[in-house]
Design goal:
- There is one protein chain.
- The chain has 260 residues and is of the alpha/beta class.
- The protein has a single domain, classed as NAD(P)-binding Rossmann-like Domain (Rossmann fold).
- It contains eight helices and seven strands.
- The protein has a seven-stranded parallel beta sheet, with helices on both faces.
- Helix 5 links the parallel strand 5 and strand 6.
- Helix 3 packs parallel to helix 4.
- It starts with 5 loop residues before the first strand and ends in a 17-residue tail after the last helix.
Length: 260
């Protein structure tokens, strides 16, 4: 049995989640793997057990189904020290093409599920004074010009939630990281009706996760693996923070000419 924190990973059967499972297993962490595809999870678990000797538990679940989400929430209460909120979906087309039901499912899996899971584990981690929550956001949280209207909106939520949770929980010994991938070679493209081979600048999943884990080890609040110049993010944050004092005003800004 590992003496390191046990890691629960959602969306673990393939792509980013599967590579996270591989990397944490190689670091000596026992795992709980969550995804809809139980057969894929079992195959991955068998390989990781064989190659690393860690304990790997498989928990098949469709997280948009309340009863199945409840199973994962209950499992989080029992000895999990690191949560990787990775499960998510994208949709074909743009906002004008997507149905209300599809958008609702998108929001459920990309927003409601990771928020609930973080909400379940955070109080216990804070009480213990240790642990981590990793939320997979996207560079689309920062780039409305690129489209992906509803999907990007869900990732903006995840970024904002992660930043606030890190401010809340870091003083209590709990680390929260937002990871912002750009285009990454995963099955999400095919499922959203796009050909990943026609997209420029696609990062391999292993590189993405290895960079994210480098940020994890550095305890970065926000990790953006494709961004070459960290100073650009620091300038972005500095500009945002410079606005904060100006948001507390009794009157509209003079530029609007209201009541003046």
């Amino acid at each position: 049995m590992s003496n390191k924190d046990k890691v629960l990973i959602t969306g673990a059967s393939t792509g980013i989640g599967a590579v996270y499972a591989d990397r944490f297993a190689k670091r000596g962490h026992d795992l709980v793997l969550v995804a809809r595809d139980g057969a894929r999870l079992a195959t991955l678990a068998a390989r990781l057990i064989r190659e690393t000797g860690v304990k790997v538990e498989v928990l098949p679940a469709d997280l948009v189904e309340p009863a199945e989400l409840a199973k994962v929430e209950a499992r989080l209460q029992d000895g999990i020290g690191i949560l990787i909120n990775n499960a998510g979906i994208a949709l074909p087309g743009n906002f004008l093409d997507q149905s209300p039901d599809d958008v609702t499912r998108l929001i459920t899996l990309n927003v409601t599920v990771p928020t609930r899971l973080a909400n379940v584990i955070a109080p216990r981690l804070a009480q213990q004074g240790r642990g981590a929550i990793v939320n997979i956001s996207s560079i689309l949280a920062l780039t409305p010009e690129l489209g992906f209207e509803a999907y990007g909106g869900t990732k903006s939520f995840i970024l904002r939630l992660s930043q606030s949770l890190n401010l809340l929980l870091a003083p209590k010994g709990v680390y929260v990281q937002a990871v912002l991938p750009a285009a990454t070679r995963t099955e999400i493209w095919e499922r959203s009706g796009l050909d990943v081979n026609k997209i420029e600048g696609v990062m391999e999943v292993s590189d993405l996760v290895d960079a994210a884990l480098a940020g994890f080890d550095r305890r970065e609040a926000v990790t953006i693996p494709p961004l070459p110049d960290e100073a650009q993010w620091q300038a972005y944050e500095a500009a945002r923070q410079a606005m904060l004092p100006n948001f507390r005003q009794e009157k509209p800004a003079a530029r609007y000419g209201i009541g003046r």
